[in-house]
Amino acid sequence: MLYIQGYGILFAFILFSLAFATAAIVTSWFVHPKAPNKNKNSTYECGMKTFGDSRLQFDVKYYMYALMFIIFDIEAIFLFPWAVAYNKLGLFALIEAIIFILILVLGLIYIWKKDFLKWK
């Protein structure tokens, strides 16, 4: 009986995965309907003729608000484990958390002074 151990299992898994993916792609290529025409190759746009430029430009303020949300959301994610383990941590961890929050507050004061929070 053939026993596969160690990296042989990984190699067999990769080989089987590649063979399965290749077989699926080749089979779908053989069985798909082949009747190209002008309508099938055109862009689908709800049956309406396209007009104008489809590219919309958003104001930078949207991105600034999204960036600030991500920054303060990640701050909450970093502070949650610290708050859970607060009793086990010492004074050093408390000082680190205060410095972390202070840096974020300074960033908030900076964007407040630069009027990024005002919607014009």
Shape: flat
Task: Determine the mean pLDDT.
Answer: 82
SSE class:
mainly alpha
Number of helical stretches of at least 4 residues: 4
Low-confidence stretches: none
Number of strand segments: 0
Supply Rg: 28 Å
What is the CA-CA span between the terminal residues?
76 Å
Largest sheet: none
**Proportion in helices:** 55-70%
SSE string? HHHH
- Approximate strand percentage: under 5%
How is this structure best summarized?
This protein is mostly helical. 64% of the residues lie in helices and 0% in strands. α3 (60-84) packs antiparallel against α4 (91-113).
Give descriptors for this structure.
120 residues; mainly alpha; single chain
Task: Summarize the structure in words.
The chain has helices at residues 7-31, 38-41, 60-84, 91-113. With 120 residues, it is mostly helical. Helix 3 (60-84) packs antiparallel against helix 4.
